[in-house]
Amino acid sequence: MSGARGWAEEALELLLWRVAETAGQVGERFPLYADPDGGRWTTTGRGSWTGGFWAGLLRLRARHTGGAADRAAAAAATARLAPWAEADTATRGLVVWYGTALADEDDAAAAVLRQRAAKAALAAWDPALGLVPWGAALGGPRLRARADGVPGLVPLLACAGDEGRAAASAHLHRHLDLCLTREGSWRPRPAWRWDVARGGWAAEADPAPGWSRGEAWLLLAVADGLLRADGPSWHTDRLATDAQRLLLRGEFLDGPVVPPAEAGAPEGPPDTSAAAIAAVALLKLGCLTEAAWAGEAAARAEAVLRRLVDAHLTRPGGPGPAGMLLDGCYDARSGTAVRHELVWGDFFLALGLAALLGRVDLTRV
Fold it and tell me: 93 φ, ψ to 5°?
């Protein structure tokens, strides 16, 4: 493989080959995580909060091959996400945004689904709380705010006209107000619940500060906000300051290239999916060429992608399938899938590699 980034081309080929293999295994279900030995997927019927990443991977494969069958498979997976457009969950941003953002410009069905979800998200906007609540669709109290309820939802809300852009900005800033509080831990605090009796926000114990994937989700959301800021309501100076705070608190530029799933348990399992999300966020921040940290962010992103490819991506001839990004951690505390292939880890690694190779414009995804 020739070229300075031949390693990235080879890795993307492996990942997208794995997508085709996975499609044959899961049929019309959605992959969630796969065991590290045989590569057998645990699946869901409706996709849960991860369904958009499977549709996104199929979109990346269709772009790569240009094949009609691959385009049809991607469109069919996106169509199966339709029930999530009006579901009561802030994670509809993860589901619908990433399930449609890579669609071709002439894909009317994907555009309609994205607009449906954007309007529904705007309708769920709670002006008293200043955000779209976490929601009840995935269980638990509805009036919550979590770091994983921000990425995807910022660009999705921004599709809903002027009101949507204002709501996107406020949703992002309210989460930053909470998660980057200076009280208690230096690490961002990723989960909050609205205490109706007290009339205020109360921090939740789980996930706790130091959840590396939560920190990566926040950095991704801030990068999206900075890239979409088109007016004073975005408060870009403050977003730039918060980006710097996140880079410092999450050790994104000088900490472990692949972080532990929980910063408080450095000997515990790593989370390659957190690293892959962070790499895409850093690549996006690198697009902000006027920022002092843009060059450093872009260089670190490439270093993270290279480490994931060299140390954690399976190759042909191994005990399991090729193209698996291993050492992803679904949930360290419960011991669920702690060294596994995760569908969103695969997606963000593939997205980062495609962007590095100039195949995807991250200012639009």
Answer: -65, -45
Alpha carbons 175 and 130: distance in angstroms, whole number: 9
Q: Would you call 271 helix, strand, or coil by DSSP? A: coil
Four-CA torsion 15, 16, 21, 25, nearest 10 degrees = 90
Tell me which amino acid residue 93 is: G
Q: Which residues contact 182 (CB under 8 A, 6 or more apart)?
A: none
E-only strand ranges, the chain = 30-34, 41-44, 144-146, 191-195, 200-203, 341-342
Q: pLDDT per position in the chain (365 positions), as tens? A: 346 789 999 999 999 999 999 999 999 999 999 999 999 999 999 999 999 999 999 999 999 999 999 999 999 999 999 999 999 999 999 999 999 999 999 999 999 999 999 999 999 999 999 999 999 999 889 999 999 999 999 999 999 999 999 999 999 999 999 999 766 568 999 999 999 999 999 999 999 999 999 999 999 999 999 999 988 889 999 999 999 999 999 999 999 999 999 999 999 999 999 999 999 999 999 999 999 999 999 999 999 999 999 999 999 998 889 999 999 999 999 999 999 999 999 999 999 999 999 999 999 99
Do residues 204 and 163 lie in contact, with contact meaning Cβ atoms separated by under 8 Å? Answer: no
Cα 316 to Cα 364: distance, rounded to the nearest angstrom: 33
CA separation, residue 86 to residues 99, 118, 119, 139, 344 (Å): 15, 9, 9, 16, 22
The dihedrals phi and psi of 143, each to the nearest 5 degrees, come to -85, 80
CA–CA separation, 227 and 329 (whole Å):
29
The model carries a pTM of: 0.97
Give 302-351 as a DSSP string: HHHHHHHHHHHB--TTSSS-TT-B--B-SBTTTTBSTTBEEHHHHHHHHH
- Partnered with residue 342 across adjacent β-strands are 33
Sequence-distant (≥ 6) Cβ neighbours of residue 13 within 8 angstroms = none
